[in-house]
């Protein structure tokens, strides 16, 4: 049982929770993730990146987007409630060193897992450029936090409602074309975005690690559900990754695998909406109320 | 097998028993007693439910089966059992109706009889050397030791459960057990008995290891595993679930920072092998571990309550010939597949699965394609499985080990349509512990290396079960656990 210490709503679909997990807070490094289960009897196991940690207070921060049944269930929990199971830290930590000029590209919810990596790269003495993108203004998260650590912050939206109207690959390409191209470009976001980031940096020979978000069950290397082809050999994302050289990942294969359960999950999601159209609305109401409360108490 | 209805078998056994009553039995008489079949759910019914297939002997059946034992002086069955249960001893007590006494005898060396009675490959272990089976020229006619063991254990469970083992006064010593599979659970019980404090660290949300995530409910009801874990808790063993040693807490930290005096590594062989053929990453190809975990631990078969999805399958291919393959095939059938085929490179003789499971699978309508193995998984432009390209084999001449290996038949390749492929070709050791524990010696397959007392290359660290043996059996894992526990108790006694 891991108690939720605080919960905030970052955007319409995005929540931040701080939970008690002293061992994980002590051991975790940037790039690692946890598997959470709101309900150990019937619930799914959901992988989420550790967005931040406080080893002194023994807490970790998770930021998640509600996409299906399990993330919606998670969003129903409030400060004071407990998550039944949190397993971690899983996966290999990001390799951090002083590369020189590091660019971090975060798309949508990918900005959350990017944050601790950006922080670590900055701390290691890199010049840090952060490119963050979202479909629209309401989905932008952690802008202030990123601004506080980045030497340069570029915000883009698909619809131009905030920052520059562009896809993240445009400023990335410009950076690669500059006289001093970046030494490393880390990409985290939807698979399509990571795929096109890889295509953008490839001609320039800029090293591009990407963090993969395949479907996972155990997260400990036991099931092979998370497997993906990298450079022609099969890797398990949960133990061999989650970061891989984006230039070697079989993105198309990975995207196909991510859709394996799509029809089933869509059906479950629909049932959730139909069975309790009002439930989701109530949930949203509650979340807004608690966000307001958290904001008000500051 | 016919006539496995409980009523019919029980009635027949009652008649036999009445005939035996009060008689002094000579070996010749014992050999004439018919072996008792296991009452089972009807194949047509059980193929559509998750309930246990084998229902267990009735009392009359148990008495009759026990009466078949010749009480051999040299008891060749005993060395066949990895934990050397006094088999003639407990079987003799069953024959005389002293079930409590029988349970006591078994308990001396086996803590999990309800489980072993169900899942041990008896025909390769205790029942293989049985004199009666040899005399009747068929291992299937040996004394049904496993079924008797199950009967004794189930009877005791039904009458209020097994007594909680006595725990010696606290010694102040602490032992960390890593992994809550049969090896770890055995160590915990045996070490705790001596009065040492025991904490079991388990990565999953439930204790039991493969017994909860791999072996299906219809073969081993999860309630039995749960009872065993509860019993440990009542002995004062603490479970730290959702804790991955090597990640959440490094193994050396347990000993150096968290004050444990000894540790046991029983993390199993949880790394699924694939075939390394083209197309294996298509949607619809699963490792047996994934398929079974979704169904057993996440209970995806309960569409009403579980949120874990399960892939809807009509035509399923299962690759492999062991217990894992049988479990996957029978699970797929229960989840509504119309046709399930097991593809195995050799013949039925060489199949490593328990004989009873193969028989049950055949009764349920699983089709076996012997001497065939895929060379490629076929898929459509959406990356979804559409079938297999299959090669046929014949058995070649025996090699040095006497085993006849399959030889591919040229030009035999053909395509078969499937929408799901479950790969059940074995498990290797998960390298996590080895990778995160400096100084822990492992072989090239990441099996932890141990000496005769299960001691590893590290001070105060023992290991056992599948992480040492490679994918083996429940009872072998327990046997290793017992050995390790004895060594740990001795070590702590001197410390
Ligand atoms: C290592 C790792 C780190 C992650 N970190 C974060 C994070 O920090 N914050 C966050 O919001 N999400 C993160 N994800 C994604 C998150 O795990 C999924 O969004 C979540 O599992 C969806 O569960 P659900 O039941 O709500 O939705 P489901 O009903 O399971 O799925 C809804 C839809 O999402 C797709 N989907 C399912 N699983 C995933 C997945 N693993 N990744 C992407 N899409 C998926 C499905 O195709 C489906 O269409 C991470 C994933 C991985 C593997
Ligand atoms: C589908 C299937 C069917 C089988 N059928 C039979 C059968 O009929 N009869 C039979 O005798 N045998 C059978 N076996 C084999 C048998 O289950 C195993 O040999 C036995 O369970 C091994 O026991 P163990 O204690 O070594 O490991 P496991 O049972 O594998 O348990 C290991 C435990 O350690 C945990 N763990 C792993 N790493 C860590 C870590 N780093 N930190 C904390 N915890 C960790 C795992 O989550 C797991 O719970 C079957 C196996 C499978 C997969
Ligand atoms: S534990 Fe297994 S091998 Fe030993 S007697 Fe029982 S069934 Fe036979
Ligand atoms: S070998 Fe068979 S007949 Fe002889 S004692 Fe053992 S079980 Fe009984
Ligand atoms: S999630 Fe099971 S092996 Fe990676």
Q: Briefly, what is this?
A:
The complex is a heterodimer of chains A (298) and B (495). Chain A is an alpha/beta fold.
What does this protein structure show overall?
The complex is a heterodimer of chains A (298) and B (495). In chain A, 34% of the residues lie in helices and 29% in strands. Chain A is an alpha/beta fold. In chain A, helix 6 runs antiparallel to helix 8. Chain A is globular and about 55 Å long. Mean pLDDT of chain A is 87; it is low at 275-298. Chain B has helices at 6-20, 27-32, 43-46, 59-67, 77-80, 87-95, 99-107, 113-119, 131-135, 145-158, 182-193, 210-213, 222-234, 251-256, 288-296, 323-334, 355-364, 432-436, 466-469, 474-494; strands at residues 174-178, 197-201, 238-240, 262-265, 271-272, 285-287, 315-319, 339-343, 367-369, 372-379, 385-398, 404-408, 414-417, 420-423, 427-428, 461-463. In chain B, helix 17 (355-364) links the parallel strand 8 (339-343) and strand 9. In chain B, helix 6 crosses helix 10 (145-158). By secondary structure, chain B is an alpha/beta fold. The radius of gyration of chain B is 23 Å and the shape is globular. Chain B has a five-stranded parallel β-sheet. Chain B has a five-stranded parallel β-sheet with strand order 6-14-7-8-9. At the A-B interface, helix 1, helix 2, strand 7, strand 14 and helix 8 of A face strand 5 and helix 15 of B. The structure holds flavin-adenine dinucleotide (FAD) (2 copies), iron/sulfur cluster (2 copies) and FE2/S2 (inorganic) cluster. Residues 69-72, 75-77, 87-88, 91, 130-132, 143, 145 of chain B line the site of one iron/sulfur cluster (SF4).
